[in-house]
């Protein structure tokens, strides 16, 4: 987890200062390209957002920042990889698919006494699954009840925080509980709706620790499961940092390319809103700002615009306050960079040029 061997956090100020430096100044932060550095110590928050069309350079930019964060800033890296192309030197990769020995457990409890516990997890998860499973209020209520049942079966109770430390149930427990409710029509329907999820088995297997420099390769999963797995991971990363307590430093950066699948993730909204306090930064990339929630966009200080599809020009220009002409003139791996009010145009130094 994040409690061991964590590097000393980097100090972060809460005010914005220019981040573009002359070449003869001491190098600090991460080189984005040309003489432009991203310096988490000097920006309002350690979050970043990259928008770009197909082949514009999103993946190469995100990988470059992740790699440099690890080597130059010594912060921990967690990558949620929806396309399977985010490998970075020195990482530990957990491929998550039907055949893999590992899974992800969406029932891991948030240990924060104020905002955690099994009951809140049951509600959170039911809310997340509501859309995927097209559940009405009855089924959602039933799911909450069954999840709570799974926890109490393992002697985990909301009112006994010490019990939250026990091994949590996983979806195998949930499947078993639903299978026993053969008399209950709603339970039978819910079980049917969840059969694909149970079939894949990824939420029924043991989960490896979040660890250091880990990449979670979710590329083999269907989009619905990617969304649940990605949200569970982001939520676990946030909860682990909240437990570590406040810091003025940067402990970890979470990277998510093609963030479309997590456009409705409450976990990402929480990280964007509160992650800075706990030393957690979020970098997301997507083809359109439409795929990124308003909360994430508005709480992200650093923004990079790469070439976008012509249909995205008006929205991108409006959202990031650049002219349509300036965006239209960009070539792949050229970016308009905005640090709050300051903006410049740079050529990104891609990952493939940093690591051959
Ligand atoms: N190893 C490499 N050597 C040379 N050029 C590369 C290499 N990898 C990628 N590129 C080029 O870098 C540019 C950016 O590629 P990248 O994969 O980052 O784009 P992307 O925005 O992620 O695209 P997509 O939406 O298809 O995922 C492309 O023009 C690509 O051809
Ligand atoms: Mg890509």
Arrangement of strands in the largest sheet: 6-7-5-9-10-4-11-12-13
For the sheet with most strands, the description reads: 9 strands, mixed
| Overall 3D shape | globular
Number of E-state strands: 13
Bound molecules: adenosine-5'-triphosphate, magnesium ion
Mean model confidence by pLDDT: 89
Strand proportion: 15-25%
Radius of gyration: 21 Å
CATH class division of the largest domain: Alpha Beta
What is the CATH homology-level superfamily of the largest domain?
A: P-loop containing nucleotide triphosphate hydrolases
Structural domain tally: 2
Features:
single chain; 356 residues; alpha/beta; Rossmann fold; 2 domains; 9-stranded mixed sheet; two-stranded antiparallel sheet; 13 strands; binds adenosine-5'-triphosphate; binds magnesium ion
Give an overview of the whole structure.
The protein has a nine-stranded mixed β-sheet with strand order 6-7-5-9-10-4-11-12-13, with helices on both faces. A two-stranded antiparallel ribbon has the order 1-8. It has 356 residues and is α/β, with parallel strands linked by helices. The model is unreliable at 1-27 (pLDDT under 50). It starts with 9 loop residues before the first strand and ends with a helix. Strand 2 (30-33) and strand 3 form a beta hairpin. The relative contact order is 0.21. It contains twelve helices and 13 strands. It has two domains: 10-90 and 249-354, P-loop containing nucleotide triphosphate hydrolases (Rossmann fold), CATH 3.40.50.300; 118-200, no CATH class. It has helices at 58-72, 118-132, 137-153, 171-180, 185-193, 195-200, 223-244, 266-274, 294-298, 313-320, 324-328, 351-354; strands at 10-11, 30-33, 36-38, 48-51, 76-81, 92-95, 214-217, 249-250, 252-256, 280-286, 302-305, 334-339, 342-347. The radius of gyration is 21 Å and the shape is globular. Bound molecules: adenosine-5'-triphosphate (ATP) and magnesium ion. The site of adenosine-5'-triphosphate has 12 residues, from helix 1.
């Amino acid at each position: 987890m994040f409690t061991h061997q964590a590097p000393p956090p980097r100090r972060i100020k809460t005010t914005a200062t220019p981040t573009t430096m002359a070449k003869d100044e001491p190098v600090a932060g991460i080189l984005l390209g040309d003489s432009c550095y991203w310096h988490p110590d000097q920006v309002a928050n350690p979050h970043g957002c990259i928008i770009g069309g197909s082949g514009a350079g999103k993946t190469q930019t995100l990988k470059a920042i992740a790699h440099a964060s690890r080597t130059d800033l010594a912060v921990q890296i967690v990558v949620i990889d929806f396309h399977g192309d985010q490998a970075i030197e020195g990482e530990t990769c957990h491929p998550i698919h039907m055949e893999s020995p590992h899974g992800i457990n969406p029932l891991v409890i948030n240990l924060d006494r104020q905002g955690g516990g099994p009951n809140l997890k049951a509600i959170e998860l039911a809310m997340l699954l509501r859309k995927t499973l097209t559940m009405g209020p009855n089924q959602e209520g039933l799911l909450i009840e069954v999840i709570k049942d799974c926890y109490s079966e393992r002697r985990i109770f909301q009112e006994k925080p010490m019990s939250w430390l026990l091994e949590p149930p996983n979806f195998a427990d949930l499947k078993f509980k639903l299978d026993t409710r053969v008399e209950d029509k709603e339970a039978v329907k819910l079980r049917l709706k969840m059969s694909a999820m149970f079939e894949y088995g990824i939420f029924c297997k043991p989960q490896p620790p979040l660890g250091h420099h880990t990449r979670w390769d979710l590329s083999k999963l269907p989009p619905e499961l990617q969304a649940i797995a990605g949200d569970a991971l982001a939520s676990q990363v946030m909860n682990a940092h909240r437990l570590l307590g406040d810091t003025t430093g940067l402990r970890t950066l979470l990277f998510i390319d093609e963030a479309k699948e997590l456009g409705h993730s409450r976990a990402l909204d929480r990280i964007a809103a509160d992650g800075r306090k706990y030393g957690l930064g979020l970098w997301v990339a997507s083809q359109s700002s439409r795929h990124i929630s308003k909360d994430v966009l508005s709480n992200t200080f650093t923004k990079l615009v790469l070439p976008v599809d012509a249909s995205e020009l008006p929205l991108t220009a409006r959202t990031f306050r650049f002219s349509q002409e300036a965006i239209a003139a960009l070539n792949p791996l050229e970016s308009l960079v905005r640090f709050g009010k300051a903006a410049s145009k740079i050529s990104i130094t891609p990952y493939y040029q940093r690591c051959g």
